Amino acid sequence: MSRGFGSLLGAVAAIFAVLFTAVAAGQYWFLNHQLRQKTNDELLDSAEQMREDIAFTAEDKQGNTVVVELKAGTADQKAIGQLLSYMGDLMADGKPVRGILVAGDFTTRALSAARPVSNVALRKYSFHFSFETAK
Questions:
Q1: Is 134 within a domain?
Q2: What is the pLDDT of residues 49-80, one digit of tens each?
Q3: What is the dihedral of CA 49, 51, 53, 59, to 10 degrees?
């Protein structure tokens, strides 16, 4: 793995907690408090689905498109399928596309589904919190 790519991946992992939490909280609040035309159950289902993943694209040093899918918690084989669908949409223009799936963990089926796809990388995130007395 190149140093630049490692830095990009490190930056993605570092900002994941902040971005994911902020976006998910904002989406959840908006759905729960602004869209009153739906029932509470429909709102909660929509908010839960939005809270589970975030996807974005980037460009690597070679100019190739990189699809980054962020999953809260454990990613299953459906997450691999979702990432591959995004990648397939972007491959229509003929440019090389790589995918990175970032999650807290991966099911055995997800690992198996990604194994034969050479342009897909799986990366695990973790958090460490510490608390100190403010002085």
A1: no
A2: 444 556 888 888 888 889 999 988 899 999 99
A3: 130
